[in-house]
């Protein structure tokens, strides 16, 4: 394969399979947000902390829906930028969950070890996903730049 052929493949937008996946992500985010919002709206007597938790879950779902829409509408190559954005979205969702869990635990004056384990596990998974996405993007960008340099040298 020549450098021109590789560059042409790198410059393509998302594949059909990737687009369908991101449409599914957007639909899942919208569906989850709508269902939680509907439950929240039809239960007026919920405690404040439950309302706050529902609001955070709706925001997380809308964030994933916006991400899916953003990724599908890109007409340029992303070079794994979509994976990095998804990684940061996962970290943000983990932070929101962790802060909420910490606040609830402190208000109850009881820190559950199982909850702490779940928070740490989810944080590790989110951090590892973000790190892998950033590495994959760096590799693709380096490859693109090297191929572009090779193409201009000829």
Task: Please explain how this structure is put together.
The chain is built from five helices and no strands. It has one domain (3-153). The chain starts with a helix and ends with a helix. 12% of the residues are buried. It is elongated. By secondary structure, it is an all-alpha fold. The protein has helices at residues 3-10, 16-42, 48-73, 81-108, 113-153.
What portion of residues belong to β-strands? under 5%
Secondary-structure element sequence?
HHHHH
- Taking the alpha carbons of the first and last residues, their distance comes to 16 Å
Oligomerization status of the protein chains: single chain
Percent helix, as a range, is over 70%
Features:
154 residues; mainly alpha; elongated
In short:
This protein has 154 residues and is mostly helical.
SSE topology:
Blueprint: H1 3-10, H2 16-42, H3 48-73, H4 81-108, H5 113-153
Helix pairs in contact: 1-5, 2-3, 3-4, 4-5
């Amino acid at each position: 394969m020549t450098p021109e052929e590789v560059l042409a493949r790198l410059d393509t937008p998302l594949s059909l399979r990737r687009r369908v996946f991101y449409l599914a992500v957007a639909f899942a985010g919208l569906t989850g947000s709508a269902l939680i919002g509907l439950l929240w709206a039809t239960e007026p007597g919920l405690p404040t902390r439950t309302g706050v938790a529902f609001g955070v879950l709706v925001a997380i779902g809308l964030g994933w829906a916006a991400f899916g829409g953003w990724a599908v509408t890109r007409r340029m190559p992303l070079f794994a930028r979509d994976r990095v954005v998804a990684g940061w979205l996962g970290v943000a969702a983990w932070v929101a969950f962790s802060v909420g869990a910490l606040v609830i635990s402190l208000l109850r004056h009881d820190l559950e070890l199982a909850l702490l384990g779940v928070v740490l596990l989810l944080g590790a998974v989110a951090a590892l996903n973000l790190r892998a996405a950033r590495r994959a993007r760096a590799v693709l960008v380096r490859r693109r730049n090297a191929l572009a340099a090779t193409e201009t040298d000829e």
